[in-house]
Amino acid sequence: MTTHRISSALDDQARAILQGNDRGGYTIPTDGLYPYQWNWDSAFAAWGFSTFDLDRAWTELETLFSAQWDDGMVPHIIFHKQDPGYFPGPEVWGTNKTPATSGISQPPVAATMARLILQADPEAGRERIAALWPKIVAWHRWWRDYRCGTGVVAITHPWESGRDNCPDWDIGMAGVDGSNVGEYTRRDTGHVDPSMRPGKAEYDRYIAMVQFGRACGWDQREIVANGPFLMEDPGITFILTRANDDLAAMGRDLGHDVSEIEGWAADLRAAAPRLWNPETRGFDARDLKTGRFADRIASAAFLAYLAGVETPELAARMDGIWDAVRYGFPSADPAADSFEPRRYWRGPSWPVVNALLAIGLKDRGLDAAAERLRRETAELIEAHGFFEYFDPIDGTPCGGDAFTWTAAIWLTWAGADDPAKGAA
Ligand code: GLC
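# alpha-D-glucopyranose complex -> structure
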């Protein structure tokens, strides 16, 4: 049964943001800063649309998968229409695809979001998921074939993780030579405060990785074998594990044999302990160029709950990090020297990650923690609006405004579960 809660002014604003960022079949993350379709943003946008326009929700995912590569990869950006306000644009990536795309992927949350959308109305979604399902399978197979060489997921560019400048990647970034990338003009720092964005040295290295991919014609095996950056990512590992479960569940309902997908999920769970760093007592990223752990602990480490991968220490570790801030879960460890509360993934609280964490907490029966996370996230949005991310200590809104995925998680989770609102 679907319950309809009483709509609030913030609900109206959130819907208006999704509709305002709709470019016809796909939604941009925010006007100006991100003028194209981003992979995991779109999956969250679809979840947000599902609260008021199911047809549009499915269309969002269909448009995303319309840019899938022949090998199964679903790119992290789809450049539907040229926009000079963004760098690096399609001419820098040079992937020669139609539509033009980037050459890396992004966290595979689509299956998990599709299942949530399907639950809203299984009958109405049946045909849509039947057509999408094999495409999602092909994408998950791509992760397995191209990125899971050690058993867990490795990324070839920090942007692939969706957590661009997280301290997790510092150790791998240190090995990338950004000194020969040539002249270029960034566009992000013209849209938002540069102190809330990655620095120039980091950007040079990001571009060097793009140039390597382009030079080898985006040959994914070559990039993994000889590219400048390769790190195991706890975030995508846990997201993919969970997404495989969701994909298998939907496949079962459609009458498919899902044993292969169940095997992928089981293999990822079996390999997950490899990411446990006894020094930091947490799941950690590992640099595959050197074999060394990053010795960091980030929000993504606690997506272990989402994947049903736990350790006896996880809850205590999570509380320790969370209690050091006031608003939502910090993207990076507040106790580390690298912590910067307003710089992107080096400390801020991201509503969208809070939502994913809460799904995991709730599924493990940690209802009080899930509700605390929802409440703290809601407070940020209620006080400041639908920003990209927030300072987790004083709540200062950061990055882009009128942000699609912040609006989406308000409608589906942060503003939706509020017991005070009740249902009508
Ligand atoms: C930034 C974020 C990434 C997101 C994109 C669009 O690159 O780090 O996770 O997908 O912006 O919002």
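# post-check
The mean pLDDT is 95.
Residues 122-147 form the longest helix (26 residues).
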